[in-house]
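Regression check, fe (ii) ion case 291:
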Amino acid sequence: MFTLAHLSDLHLALTPKPSELAGKRGLGYVNWQRKRKYIHRPDVLTAITRDLQTRSAEHVVVTGDLSNFSLPGEYAWARRWLESIGRPAEVTVIPGNHDVYVRSAEELPAKFWGDYMRGDDGLEQFPFVRNRGDVALIALSTGVPTGPFLATGRLGQPQLARLAEALEQTHGRFRIVLIHHPPVSPARRYFRRLVDAEDLRLVLAAKGAELLLHGHDHRRSLVWIAGTGNKKIPAVGVPSASAQAKYGHEDPAGYTIFRIDGSSDSWCCETVSYQRAVNGEIGECARFRIY
Ligand SMILES: [Fe+2]
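Current build output:
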């Protein structure tokens, strides 16, 4: 039995200096002051983190948007939070669009979180692969700087080609693809979609995977996408780990535990989702078997 925890989208935010408010950060800061600062709360993240630590997960995955404005202080804050969760070998991180918010921040996720974003081969290149027990974690990056009012992501052909290779090389393991943006977005999320989602789905349909975990939408979700043959791949989203309440389509803070057992011809995988209620209590809100 392998126990994996998934959480995402911490949105740890600091106040940008006036010199940092040009362009996209300025617009993002207006949005933060108007509404986002009332949603993403460090005290909520602390409560979620404490609850998660009682579950004794062997490994934790964090699928992006640890920072909010890609400010150096936010990466350092996220680094301290990561260290409170576990050692780099026990925690896997990928960046989200907020972690590569502006072009000048492109190198900062690797600078601050590099050892949490590295494959078993020691290379810092996406996708990276970490084998843990019978599980293979295949970590992608969709974080690319975009213009104002956009929160799109892109994998690019080189990364998609390496993903196909990684899925082949880990065939027989319980392959978990980690990605910030979901592989399918509703029309209302057009300006927040993964622009090459169709190419990703083609690779997954050709090579197969056992599970895909994502963040970005800030909601608990499960969709099944095409795998090899008649197989379907469950794509599971989690809410933001710092969201203090339901907001629009977004769910209150939570995380999911996966219990994975069995072998390549008969996997068992149960998911248990935990959610923070309005009164601050954190409890189980959904449980189902995906294998
Ligand atoms: Fe996010």
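Comparison notes: The two ends are 13 Å apart (CA to CA). The chain has a mean pLDDT of 96. No diff flagged against the previous build.
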